[in-house]
Write a structure and sequence with these properties.
12 strands, D-Maltodextrin-Binding Protein, domain 2, 2 domains, Solute-binding protein family 3/N-terminal domain-containing protein, 3-stranded antiparallel β-sheet
Length: 268
């Protein structure tokens, strides 16, 4: 299983010697959206009866990860996908029920600590004077930034390069999940980014796990995953996990710059 190196490091720190199936509380140090995804996926697979174990290869993972899934060389992604991204490859992926439902995804506005232009904003009109970075390959991220009416959005396909561009203030900010257990600070090598203390952006989409249709164990793993996710959802575990991790924030503390409108028939 290929995992981005910083995510894998925080995953191991969060587990602190535990097995993923032993986790019942998702608060504490090093927990973040990616880590919650990893733990919930493994719990769901086990509940559904899929007993194979995984070995990990951490590194600077980018779109090679998606290519391996499409080719059947990788069973599934422990990092959930936006529905729009997964749907575009529905001929190659099984798509799970939503783990993060529409309206539950809020992103922090991350910037270099000494970038006062971002630190001082109080509303959407001031944000629109700034620049951001993402990649058009992430449809929901790209559409969200486009809808904000920013001065400029840079298209950079490599995630680590995005963070470096913000760190060096070549662009003003990027959107990432909040990380309250890390004081909403992102650190990777010499990169240090912080989240705006009271403003967030809401994404209009849901997130799902994907399983390769071409992998020999793909169909069996998908059935187990779906069964396990239904059990976790019925117990209230999924929503609680993301709330405890601070990914679904306390909206008494944060102001949403772009609240989404209600919509019927969104994928669950």
């Amino acid at each position: 299983m290929y995992i981005r190196d910083d995510v894998y490091a925080d995953y191991l720190r969060f587990l602190n010697g535990r097995e993923p199936l032993e986790v019942t509380q998702f608060s504490g140090d090093y927990v973040r959206r990616d880590v919650v995804d990893m733990v919930l996926a493994q719990q769901a697979l086990a509940l559904g009866g899929f007993k194979k174990s995984f070995t990990y290869r951490p590194g600077n993972i980018s779109f090679r990860h998606s290519n391996l899934l499409e080719q059947g060389k990788l069973l599934l992604s422990f990092d959930s996908y936006w529905y729009e991204d997964a749907k575009a490859k529905a001929d190659k992926f099984f798509i799970s029920d939503a783990v993060i439902r529409r309206g539950e995804y809020f992103a922090g506005i991350f910037y270099a600590p000494d970038n006062l232009a971002v630190a001082r904003i109080t509303g959407l009109s001031e944000l629109r004077e700034l620049s951001a970075v993402s990649t058009s390959r992430w449809r929901t991220d790209w559409q969200t930034l486009a809808s904000l009416g920013l001065k400029h959005v840079m298209n950079e396909p490599v995630w680590a390069s995005q963070a470096q561009m913000v760190n060096r203030q070549w662009v003003d900010f990027m959107l990432m999940p909040l990380m309250p257990s890390l004081n909403n600070e992102f650190r990777l090598d010499e990169i240090v980014l912080v989240a705006h203390p009271n403003l967030v952006v809401q994404f209009d989409g849901s997130r799902h796990f994907v399983v390769s249709r071409l992998h020999p164990d793909g169909e069996r793993a998908f059935k187990a995953l779906q069964s396990g996710l239904k059990q976790l959802r019925a117990r209230g575990t999924i929503r609680l996990a993301y709330e405890q991790a601070g990914f679904i924030p306390d909206l008494k503390r944060y102001r949403v710059l772009n609240p989404i409108a209600p919509q019927k028939n969104s994928p669950e």
